[in-house]
Amino acid sequence: MKKIFVLPSFLAISLSFIINPVIFGSAQFIKVSAENAVDADLKDFIDGFKNPDGSQTLRLLNWEDYIYQYDPENGHEEPDLITQFEDYVKENYPQFANVNVVYSTTDTNETMLNELATGKASYDLICPSDYGIQRLMRENSLVKIKPLMDALESIPEYNFNNNYMHYGSNYMVEALANISAINDVTGETEYLGEYAVGYMWGTLGVIFNPEYDLYSHINPYEMINDMADYSSLWSEKYHGGISIKDSMRDTYFVGLAETYKQELSTLLDDYNKNLISAEEYNKQITEILNRCDQTTIDKVKEKLIELKNNIFGLEVDSGKQDIVTGTIGVNLAWSGDSVYSMDLADEYNDEHGIEPEVGLCYSVPKTGANIWFDGWCMPKDETRSEAQVYLSLLFLDFISDPANASQNTDYIGYTSFIGGDDMLDLMRDWYDIRTDYIYYYDEENDEYYDVYYYDENDNQVFVWYDDFHFEGESKLNNDPNLYYSNLDGDEIDLLDETGNQAKYNSFLTINPEWEVVDLSYFFNDTLDEYENNVDTIFYSDCYLPFSYDDGTKNECVGRQFFCQFPDEQTINRCVIMQDFGAQNDAIRIMWEDFKANDIQIWVIVLFVVEIVAIAGLITFLLVKKRITYHLRKNRRKQQK
Amino acid sequence: MKSNSTAIQRVANKKPHVVLFQRKYLCIPYSIFLILFIIIPILLIVYYAFSDATGAFSFDALVGFFTTWTKINVLFISIFIALQTTLICLLIGYPLAYFLADKKVNKNAVLVTLFIAPMWINFVLRTGATRDLLTWMNINGGNYPYLATLIGMTYNYLPFVILPLYTTMLKLDRSQIEAASDLGANPFQVFIKNILPQSVPGIVSAITMTFMPTMSSYVISDTLSEGKITLLGNYIYLDFSNTAWNDGSFMALIMLVIVGISMLFTRNKENQDSKGGATW
């Protein structure tokens, strides 16, 4: 039945396209046809999607642990996202009855790019970081996917929602789309938005433990203050407890920030005094933190070698465990890894009944930090079938659906590009203090009480507040079976003025100590049911009651919530690090120099002594042998 | 005419050529393996070592290696670490192997198994565990990178020293030793003049088993020195992961050359004292 309708409607639409787009077409349809010069070609191309020929195998290359997977032990009971996708396609797109996803993983951007460069394998979609995408764009080896997605969306027959454009956080999508690269082949400046669909993003900052043993003489709040600046990594005060990344780009960035700290802090001052606008500020620090001329490289090298003598070590993966086990106290870390470390530490502390005063903190240094993106893009491949192109786009649509994206985020721990109701739900569940169970706040005595009731089996059930639409309010207020206990767990009677059991009203009382975090910048225009600027205001208690020396607020020090969703102000001082381009080799050589060891004198002395000893021993033995031989010969002669 | 007929006769008398299974055909699977995974990769390394990014012949990588101080530096550190490891392993392993070879001490060879047992566990896992252990003992790589690396290396390569020495020691001519001491040699003389010369083949293969792998290893030094000690292996990896295949290949070639030289050296040595039991 469906097909009968589909065919005429498609004919009508294509006819309308020829005759007059204004009469029949939707607004978007017109936009696409107006914007795209290659429209006819494109249409021809996607026409082929109707009865796609060829292989229905979708080949994906992603990072390890970077997609939702079935893991019932940790409460992830749905099947793998890949399996869900296959089922979804089979159900909704009958032409893809044989769909099959081949999912491969890799561990660094370089291996990913190498694999493409050597042509070892071909993929339909890969997920490199921002600079990796830039490099591929420069080499002219990517397919433009945005026009394809827009064209598909404009024709309802294809059943393509373009979720990325609708639910992707405008703020992030724009930031990604505005990264440019010059195509070496055509010489044109092109933008990332045409080629890539954002997946996850995060910052590079410093995770630190203010109560680390080695730093016990330092006041935790003093340390928080210090860690807002990369210079502290160079400071003797923190000698021996710092670990940095054994990764060229990340550590080079930190070296850059230290090298140009004077310029950067002057700019920060200007910005704080409102002498320059936020955009101008970001533009200028982006320029500084992307320098890679030879003089800069030499300066950075010096700084990094200095740093090497102050640190505990370099790592790429062990740091997220080490900061929890107490091997190190400060670690240069990506936001997602920091969330992981904090979760791990919290779990450990809960189990052992430890209540740290501050706990692990994450800081995005004030003078400028690094923000990164990972995005899906499609490498050029002659052998790719139409079905594979269509499937790739459907896959992008699928993972950009807020429901699936939130499932992904829940599993991976990094922050998605996608907003939407489901994502907001997840974030509130995680970070909004109001989703914790209800308690009663007694203003007079400034005390909190737990609220609970007894179910039919006489089990104590805490009242949870997980419904933001306050549906339960009236019911709860009239419930005579509510009980209260103080924080020690003793049940108490709370009576109001009329002598009745106090009515539950706590959720409307906002604790003034809570930090208010506004995420409207991220969720703007992606919400269906929720209201932006109302539902996107979070209340959090995981921020520290702390201000920096310069009087600015604590926005820079936070826990999981801050790692995952830095506020707009923080993001504004974050810089996208471009591909080094032709300077890549120079920086690699710098990095090799940095990695090589100084030869200390004792090494040379020991080496020479050993060599001399070994050589001496061998000569001695040989000479001895010779002498014995002669002696024996003489003895024999005498005997004769 | 006569000659013609004999020729025909000869052809007629010739047995039909039947392809029979020959014992050397058993080598075919390995030969294929050898060509695919050893010869071709080595040729590729040589090709990349002597070409530039565009694939044209060039000495850039060679000149680059010998004019870059840091690369020579890393080579030196690698040799240094390898030498230390070999010496420490020999100092620990030699007496141990001697006692293990004594049937009175080591009944049923249970003790040998104990010393060899760590080899059965993957060395990456073992290194991770060593790191935790060293951190617990407060000899972490952050403060003592050289010490931590040497401990890790020794721990990893000790079995490779014990095993060849042990097999050589088993074949020691015990009666000769007894004779030496009966004829008045003191224990030191017995050792120097009798045991040591007899065990030279074992020492040589122990050195080959330790020195080169230590030089090229990189997981151990990377993990245990917290990334502070960089060996040639790390450098090669660094170059390859940054698409600098030519430089990386040249360093790999240097390593191959060093292996070759040490092989030549030890091969001579082994031929000289080939009383059997050269390797284990």
Number of individual domains of chain A:
4
User: Which geometry of chain B do the CA atoms define?
Assistant: flat
Distance linking N and C termini of chain B: 66 Å
User: Into which percent range does the helicity of residues of chain B fall?
Assistant: over 70%
- What is the CATH-assigned architecture of the largest domain in chain A? 3-Layer(aba) Sandwich
Number of domains as seen in the coordinates of chain B: 1
Any idea what the radius of gyration of chain A is? 31 Å
- The level-1 CATH class of the largest domain in chain A: Alpha Beta
CATH class annotation of chain B? Mainly Alpha
* Multimerization state: heterodimer
Please describe the structure with a list of short key phrases separated by commas or semicolons.
heterodimer, A: 640 residues, alpha+beta, D-Maltodextrin-Binding Protein, domain 2, 4 domains, 10-stranded mixed beta sheet, 5-stranded antiparallel beta sheet, 27 helices, 44% helix, 15% strand, disordered N terminus, B: 280 residues, mainly alpha, MetI-like fold, 13 helices, 73% helix, disordered C terminus
Layout of strands and helices, then pairs:
The complex is a heterodimer of chains A (640) and B (280).
Chain A: H1 2-19, H2 21-24, H3 27-35, H4 39-47, E1 57-63, H5 81-92, E2 100-106, H6 109-117, E3 125-126, H7 130-138, E4 142-143, H8 146-154, H9 163-167, H10 170-177, E5 180-182, E6 189-191, H11 192-195, E7 196-208, H12 220-226, E8 242-245, H13 248-259, H14 261-272, H15 278-288, H16 294-308, E9 313-315, H17 319-325, E10 330-334, H18 335-352, E11 361-363, E12 369-379, H19 386-399, H20 402-412, E13 415-416, H21 421-431, E14 439-442, E15 447-454, E16 460-462, H22 473-477, E17 483-485, E18 491-492, E19 515-518, H23 520-523, E20 537-540, E21 557-558, H24 560-564, H25 568-572, E22 574-576, H26 584-595, H27 601-639
Parallel strand pairs in A: 1-2, 1-3, 8-9, 8-10, 12-22
Antiparallel strand pairs in A: 4-12, 5-6, 7-10, 7-11, 7-12, 7-13, 11-21, 14-15, 15-16, 15-17, 17-18, 19-20
Helix pairs in contact in A: 4-8, 13-16, 14-15, 16-26, 17-18, 20-21
Chain B: H1 2-13, H2 28-49, H3 60-67, H4 69-101, H5 110-116, H6 123-136, H7 145-170, H8 174-182, H9 187-198, H10 200-216, H11 219-224, H12 232-241, H13 245-272
Helix pairs in contact in B: 2-13, 3-13, 4-7, 4-10, 7-10, 8-9, 10-13, 12-13
